[in-house]
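Below is one such protein, fold included:
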Amino acid sequence: MLDHVIKGASVIDGTGAPAHTADVGIRDGRIAVVAPSVTEPSRSGEDGAGLVLAPGFVDPHTHYDAQLFWDPYATPSLNHGVTTVAGGNCGFTLAPLKPEDADYTRRMMSKVEGMSLVALEEGAPWTWRGFGEYLDALEGRIAVNAGFMVGHCALRRYVMGEDAVGGRPSAEQLDAMVGLLHEAMAAGAWGFSTTQSSTHSDGDGRPVASRHADPAELLALSRAVGEHEGTQIEAIVAGCLDRFSDAEIELFAEMSAAAGRPLNWNVLTIDAAVPERVPRQLLASERARKAGGRVVALTMPILTPMNMSLGTFCALNLIPGWGPVLALPVPERIDRLRDPAVRAELLERAASKEAGVFRRLADLGRYVIGDTYSEANRGLTGRVVRDIAAERGQDPFACLVDICAADDLRTVLWPMPPDNDPASWELRARTWQHEDVLLGGSDAGAHLDRMCGAPYTTRFLGDCLRGRKLVGLEQAVRMLTDAPARLFGLRERGQVREGFHADLVLFDPERIDAAPATLVHDLPGDSPRLDSKALGIRAVWVNGVEAIRDDRVTGAVPGRVLRSGRDTRTVSTR
């Protein structure tokens, strides 16, 4: 007796093979049969005619580490067909943890990953100490499959305490960190994640702990990864935002080779106006292969808008020279921003080479006004700053400051992407074919009120079917399913194949897409986040259990904590 049968769907199995019409039967959490016609009795069934049945999507870069405690459905990722998420990225995890460090960790996560501090305080139990205890706290209560790396910052803080920021470990402390990493991987951690990015600061505004590590420390931890089955490395350096230095390329290659495991990084920004960036970034992959490693770049197949503000911390604060001005009290900040000399200096710094990828934010005339809060700004929502500035006879920056000042700097600003041109999309399509490029980097679970990257799966498929059509549907599905499953060595996931886990998504190819992101207040403490409705998703199954039906969660929690070795196999770097 089958549990459920989907009849007559167009099956895209995740391998890139052509779609074929088939019946698919599910039993005991697995795909029991894929055949032209299934006659075995089943407890339930549905007609899949006119619909596509694909493997559940795998998101390789999320920050759902905390959200899963108050939102076991990992919304909106699950709504958009994602059945497996990778967490613990960028060197930030909630474990290992000493009780006295919980407040520091919450404040760091709030600052560096844009998570609501109230939600972190009220929504998670914070009762674990070891990494295995953290995984156990999630076991049996999540609707998606989830695997987690061990964050370098947590390892350092656990061993070094406050000296983790600014200090170097003694030989004994480094041994203790390596031992903690071994313990975590023995409990099922997927591997090791770290950041050296200059944009990552803790709740006190200081560089996060892992930024103080030298290459010897990173290589010692990388070697530990190689002693466990089914493990990985994820790493961020300053050059990820624009272009790697020679030292960063060597570091990535050495870390991967030392572990004998793939290393992935994000995010590869593709812009035809900067044609030298892609080949420079992919040099890390070339160098790693020569050294016996493998370095994989994550890149997004859509443009994910991220809103800005002159009132609260955002990417504008990360532009050289902007942080000190934007950190001033609001009245003083407004006075400084109204000074033409200050604005000229800020624009000069924003356009400089040292600004890196943040140069994309320098054209303030291309900003679109979002939510406003004063009578003076009535009717400006949805309008472009340069148009308003032309009407007022102002330069765009001065106009922007006046608009925001009228709202006491609460105005929401949406920069228009500078790389939404045919040449950039053509370059993306070519880059996606590279063997060391993987689609992903949604950051789902982070930067909750600034961006909503989770719907990249449905938006990409909609674009492939009815938009730019840069990739055929079968290849697009492979890029979202089997490709990331293979990178992580997921056992029996990522394909519609007999014997595989029944992680499946059933969708309407005529409708699949994502609705525009809207602000909702559904986090603990009524904190806000951006959400996006899934369009055209009929149903999502996780381990054979229906978790989504017509964009609504069913309430089932069939997801599993995926543990290295048991649920992942070692992926060769050769």
In short: The two ends are 43 Å apart (CA to CA). The chain has 18 helices and 24 strands. The first helix runs from residue 67 to 70.
